[in-house]
Amino acid sequence: MLHLALTTACLALSSGLAPAPRLSLAPRSAAPRSSPIVLVKEDCEVEEECPSPEEQWPVPLQAYSEESRKYRRTVYFHDSWVNHRSTDRFFKNFKSTLDSGVVRSLYTEILSVTMVAVAVVAINMLISGYDDFSSVRHVAPLKIPFIKDLALPALPFTIAMPALSLLLVFRTNTAYYRWNEARTLWGGIVNTCRNLQRQSNVYFSEDADGQMLRDQLARQAALFPKALKSFLRGADDDKVFKKEATLLVGPDTANALMVSKNRATFVCNLISATVKRANMDPMDRANMDSNTNKLVDYLGACERIFRSPIPLVYTRHTARFLTSFMLLLPLALWEPMRDSWNHWATIPATAILGASIDDH
């Protein structure tokens, strides 16, 4: 959840963390992907951030959920809000159901419960009889004593639904709270980096040394969010981050940054050292140091969210409850779907319910 919230604001690096017009920074390089993946518009709300069609390759669906996280950037601008408020959005959302990131991520679970429904229908046709395409009733090919058909009463599922709903609502609310907190922290990081850049433009001297230090601090401020992003993505992002760091602070500093235990803290040390070398008023230096302290505080808060998931006892209990509920659901739907041909409506009903209430 933290990872999703932080990658959401990657576009802010180019608009909010870029140096003032008089400074010239190396352009941000495109991040190579460790493995190819086909993305859909739902994953990339901003088309400029989506890979071009020639850059997309099909990959096994089991890799979709993890790989697509890098590109889930719900960054809205004016045109995005116009489309979001459009009355056509309902039809567009419905037509893109099969391209939904949720459906793609949960395809294993949805397929599993659907296959259970298919098995229930097939077995019941064998042990309780079936109708052919002419609606002629046929005797069951397989008779099992004391078993009329595989079915369960719907009442236990009706009673369990409120409890399952409470568990899912609580988990959804907790996940949204974590996402919102992470998004708030990211906003604080962006604003603090902007303030550091703004203060350097005003407080640093206008001579050659001041211009050099101003350029260094702007590059270091732009590097801090990238260092935090690299920490969240893990070792797979090392090559990308090293390339970005080399462009911003040079190869020597980038090599030292790569071997440091905490790269984001290392960047904060660089910022503090740059501020210390600047010839400026002590009060102004204290203000800039206060903003550097805020970056460290934001880093600690992000680490807290990242390292502390929702209690596993709760999430596992919810997953087990939901799995049992969904796997047994076709048995409860068998009797209510008796008016359909050979109870076949049990299959699509199970698939739709699986996509609607499955946990992820």
Quick summary:
This protein is mainly alpha-helical and 360 residues long. The protein has helices at 2-8, 12-15, 64-67, 78-85, 89-95, 101-105, 107-128, 155-203, 208-233, 238-249, 251-258, 263-277, 282-307, 312-333, 346-357, and strands at 130-131, 137-138.
Protein traits:
63% helix; mainly alpha; 360 residues; two-stranded antiparallel ribbon; 1% strand; 15 helices; single chain
Name the beta content range.
under 5%
Give the fraction of residues assigned to helices. 55-70%
The class by helix and strand makeup works out as mainly alpha
Strand order of the largest sheet: 1-2
Spell out the helices and strands N to C.
HHHHHHHEEHHHHHHHH
Rg estimate, integer Å:
28 Å
In one word, what is the shape?
Answer: elongated
Largest sheet properties: 2 strands, antiparallel
Distance between the termini: 12 Å
Return the average pLDDT rounded to an integer: 81
Question: What's the total number of strands?
Answer: 2
Number of domains: 1
Number of helices: 15
Low-pLDDT runs of 5+ residues are 1-59
Description:
The protein is mostly helical and 360 residues long. α7 packs parallel to α14 (312-333) and α14 (312-333) runs antiparallel to α15 (346-357). The protein has helices at residues 2-8, 12-15, 64-67, 78-85, 89-95, 101-105, 107-128, 155-203, 208-233, 238-249, 251-258, 263-277, 282-307, 312-333, 346-357, and strands at residues 130-131, 137-138. It is 63% helix and 1% strand. 23% of the residues are buried. The protein is elongated, with a radius of gyration of 28 Å. The chain has one domain (98-360). β1 (130-131) and β2 form a beta hairpin. A two-stranded antiparallel ribbon has the order 1-2. Mean pLDDT is 81; it is low at 1-59. It is built from 15 helices and 2 strands.
